[in-house]
């Protein structure tokens, strides 16, 4: 395959009414975006979790955040983000300004043509606001990976670079061309008459995606929220090996887990459920829906999990507004970027409505206020 030239109301929204009416100030330095796994907590249904996330994307839109991405994970009791295009379509219809996208589509799970068609359709729904973030990981365990390959069209992970090129060609306004065995050319387009195209990003937590993004001249995101190491090396590779392609110069940002509350103590309490969930994943303990704060505080874990929680707690941004904002700025300066994508992982307390996510709402509100006050620009 070659390139020929290269408001429906889907949920209640009480959280951002005041912000929308008052015309909340846009964030300055750094710009902030959101990555959402659509967390499912104890006693909550998938429908309630989705409703809470749609409320959150409307809040992010009202507050001036740059983009809002949905992840792809499969068969996890605490994550309802299994189909990014569906969530993106829902989010696009209830927002006005914010870019919406995938963080990311795990390409080995999908046929490239299907991905291209889905995101071309999304771009038609919200022209100029769609991001197609692509990753190489399976987004689940080996059993689900095998099930995906056995029950539907998927992509060979070893052909990942070519499949990225194929998607770029398919969503292009001029489409792509197949050379048939009889020598004829067969034209293929993801949509009949594209006016605009989605913005394609490569996601990764290793050197591989950084190097491929550099080779293809694509924007790149380092998945700092779960990588734990390798940020500086990946950024150096991306910037050092970058060749003009889809874009003319390197364009990148980083992700990070964030909990912001009115006090440090409340932020630490709200972070505990997700810290424990990540410890379960990394130590092979059984997975459950996200605990409430009270469940997390009152249920012991093995010592190896507790040690991991202590280590992660230092790497995540868990703080009151001023401290959190300064750490966000420090991360932006360290990575030499003008944008940071936060994963708001604040847990909920017993008695809080299951259709809402007060801790995550408060994280975005407080972070917006802190970053909009006496922001410190930097040269990036």
Looking at this protein, list some descriptive labels.
380 residues; alpha/beta; TIM Barrel; eight-stranded parallel beta barrel; three-stranded antiparallel β-sheet; 14 helices; 12 strands; 43% helix; 16% strand; globular; disordered N terminus; disordered C terminus
Task: Explain the overall architecture.
- The protein is α/β, with parallel strands linked by helices.
- It has a single domain (2-371), classed as TIM Barrel.
- It has 14 helices and twelve strands.
- The chain has helices at residues 17-22, 46-63, 84-93, 112-125, 142-151, 160-171, 207-216, 224-227, 231-241, 264-283, 293-298, 303-315, 321-335, 358-371; strands at residues 2-3, 31-36, 67-70, 99-106, 130-135, 176-179, 185-188, 199-204, 220-222, 252-260, 317-319, 339-344.
- The protein has an eight-stranded parallel β-barrel with strand order 2-3-4-5-8-9-10-12, surrounded by eight helices. Strands 1-6-7 form a three-stranded antiparallel sheet.
- Helix 3 (84-93) links the parallel strand 3 and strand 4.
- Helix 3 packs parallel to helix 4 and helix 7 (207-216) packs parallel to helix 9 (231-241).
- The chain is globular, with a radius of gyration of 21 Å.
- The two termini are 37 Å apart.
- 50% of the residues are buried.
- The model is unreliable at 2-22 and 376-380 (pLDDT under 50).
Secondary-structure topology with pairs:
Elements: E1 2-3, H1 17-22, E2 31-36, H2 46-63, E3 67-70, H3 84-93, E4 99-106, H4 112-125, E5 130-135, H5 142-151, H6 160-171, E6 176-179, E7 185-188, E8 199-204, H7 207-216, E9 220-222, H8 224-227, H9 231-241, E10 252-260, H10 264-283, H11 293-298, H12 303-315, E11 317-319, H13 321-335, E12 339-344, H14 358-371
Parallel strand pairs: 2-3, 2-12, 3-4, 4-5, 5-8, 8-9, 9-10, 10-11, 10-12
Antiparallel strand pairs: 1-6, 6-7
Helix pairs in contact: 2-14, 3-4, 4-6, 7-9, 10-12, 13-14
